[in-house]
Amino acid sequence: MPSLNRRRNIIVATAVAGLFAAGLGFYWYTATTPGPTSLTLRPDDAALIVRGQQVYLANCASCHGSKLEGQAHWRERNAQGMLPAPPHNETGHTWHHPDDMLFAITKYGIAKVAKMPDYQSAMPVYEGKLSDADIVAALSWIKSQWPAEIRAQQDAVNLRAKKN
After folding, report:
1. Are 143 and 43 a contacting pair, CB within 8 Å?
2. Quick check: 125 and 107 in contact, CB under 8 A?
3. Which tens digit of pLDDT belongs to each residue from 8-22?
4. Residue 83 and residue 162 in contact, taking contact as beta carbons nearer than 8 Å
């Protein structure tokens, strides 16, 4: 029969190993699952906006339009069952979402962010294609194009999201 000290050592070692495994599992889960990046778009940063317009025109305008107008009938599924590209101006829904979500959708895609693996979208996933800085620049440029009242409303969306 093991001594009391040996039993205590076994219990402590088992607990440490269990905590290590749990920590490793948590690290793996959070490292492989998109989540909030706690970023803030910067629509008043002139240099960033210049870069953002370049990134947007090169990567986004072919679908979302050079004037952020989106595709016709963007609220109706097409023959392939996908929604056309929505406008990113004040007539669309982009400004209804917090910065973190806009970034995550752009980087990882709607299917991954919404945890809907079967969701079909024509929008490319930009992870590995655009840097995080380029995504922030493009989204900041989009936001810089909104009227002041829409920007203020989206800022309020950000505040509510950060409180949750």
Report:
1. yes
2. yes
3. 655 544 444 433 434
4. no
